[in-house]
Fold this sequence. Notes:
The chain has 445 residues and is an alpha/beta fold. Helices cover 39% and strands 13% of the residues.
Amino acid sequence: MAGSMKTLSERAADLESGDASSRGLVEQALEAIAADPRAFTAVYPDAARKAADACDAARRAGRVLSPYAGIPISVKDLFDLEGETTLAGAAIRRGAPPARRDARIVERLRGAGFIIVGKTQMSEFAFTGLGLNPHAPQPVNPVDPLRAPGGSSGGAGVCVALGQVPGAIGTDTGGSVRIPAAWCGLVGFKPTQARISRDGAFPLSETLDSIGPLARTVEDCRILDGIMANDWEEGASPPPKSPSEITLGIPDRLVLDDLAPEVASAWERGLSRLSAAGVRLTPFAFPELSRLAEVNARGTISNAEAYAMHRRLGLLERREAYDPQVLVRIEVGARMSAADYLDLLAARSDLIAASAHRTAPFDAIIAPTTPNLPPRLTELETPEVFVRQNALALRNASIANFLDRCAISLPLATDCAPSGFMMIGENGRDRPLLDLAQEISNLLV
């Protein structure tokens, strides 16, 4: 059975009007998941039904936690759920002690009445961007089953695109929310890292990890983001700007290099629509982007921090249990010295400051979320192709993480597979970016 394609807001309206019950929404979600369970690593039917019945009883009694109480959603396989082992997509984590409490974001979502129906598939330890994992059944791109779904939050993108749940929570260290959102035809939001607590999320990089939602609309991402950040207010958006008041900056380097022809065509169509509506599109010099390859030449922050954590946990004593594509990335960190890591952090600080000055004139900077289309799964069986496609997928999206900014991917249709239109905002300017993204998404259609 195909799932429902209704948004969070539409399901909330159905619950309020009595046209739907929470139990009905949960049963619909569970039936859709059963029809194609590959996006999930665990499903909790009994707990979900029990929570749904409690929500329905509370609603009948006039006690409603939020407009979204009783709506099923999913969380990525690296978030703690009390009593469950947090696998983080890794076979090596099987048998680890169960979590003692829910992750902070799970507490907040449950506090608003959302029902966690299951955990979703991910790249092992969240350390690749294509959405492949050799330890579990492979979810495929819902638009084209021959293609990869994107990662590392691949199951999150797939289950929303299939209509199994209206929203999913992932993490984004270098694009891991925005890449699957782009490749599955969804909206994906990466907040400024400090906005949302990472307590109870298995880390990849303490410096770069961010927690964000995937959904069908910007508004749904705003709702989930606000609840996780504990600052959601209904109807809090300011009046929209007119298109002529919006200025978007287009970097003069890196982000438009090596675009797949279909991505380039979709990008130009999107720019044409925005320009015709009156949005000011301004190419600008962004030399700081040219330094990214140089400062990461000895390894990345994620390489160093992942290696240190995995060594600390003793996991590297069982190298044979890792996904080889993930292990090779972790072991880059073994070759980095303490000086390399500290130099990288210092260079990042310098680039953050310089970039803030460079992009200050713009409401946001824009780029294709990924320069490549979702690759075909058969192509990724060759390690060299996997490495190249993974690097391309992460290239543009990782800019926002390195510069410690918020960013969002909006759907951008190509002639053969979904792509993404990325907007990067300033550090801490998450709500203005979401407001702007709502306006831009309306113009891109």
